[in-house]
Amino acid sequence: MPLFPRLSGACALLLVLLAPCAALAEPSAIYLVRHAEKAAEGKDPDLTPQGRQRAQNIAAMLARTGIAHVFSTPTKRTRQSAQPLAQATGSTVQLYDPKTPQALVAQVKTLSRPVLVVGHSNTLSELVRLFGGEPGTDIADNEYDRLYQIIPGRDATVTTVLLTSLPASGTAP
């Protein structure tokens, strides 16, 4: 048998065998959190000292989860909330547009390692739903401690775990 038909047959077989693996390229866990406490003034405020402490606490809490990708909206408060974990894991904060959540979900679903997404009180519930999770009640304007863990199952099920980040006044373990 000539070489070309054998090689093309082997390549076709390899593609058939690897196709299911490509379908499994979803993160083992997706963590979603609202930015930490922000200053009251300004259109794009920084985090308050309490917010900076909460961001450090979230980083300490998630440091051992294997997070390889950190996503944030372009605002200062979300980037500042994401930065401590990105620094701890050696990753960079990747920006996403909160007006196109489907694009973020599609991008995240191509990844294979755990992910952190930092958003806003008015965007997290929709993101949780788009990832297949259950967001629960709306996030209040003064609520900064809600942390979602979305766990995709092999059988297309999704488990939503609602966690609480450490209080801004508490210190990380």
UniProtKB/TrEMBL annotation:
Protein keywords: Signal
Keyword Signal among record annotations: yes
Claim: Signal is one of the keywords in the record: yes
Pfam family, one: His_Phos_1
Gene3D superfamilies: Phosphoglycerate mutase-like (3.40.50.1240)
The organism's place on the tree of life at top rank: Bacteria
Signal peptide interval: 1-25
SMART domains: PGAM
Name recorded for this polypeptide: SixA phosphatase family protein
Source organism (scientific name): Massilia jejuensis
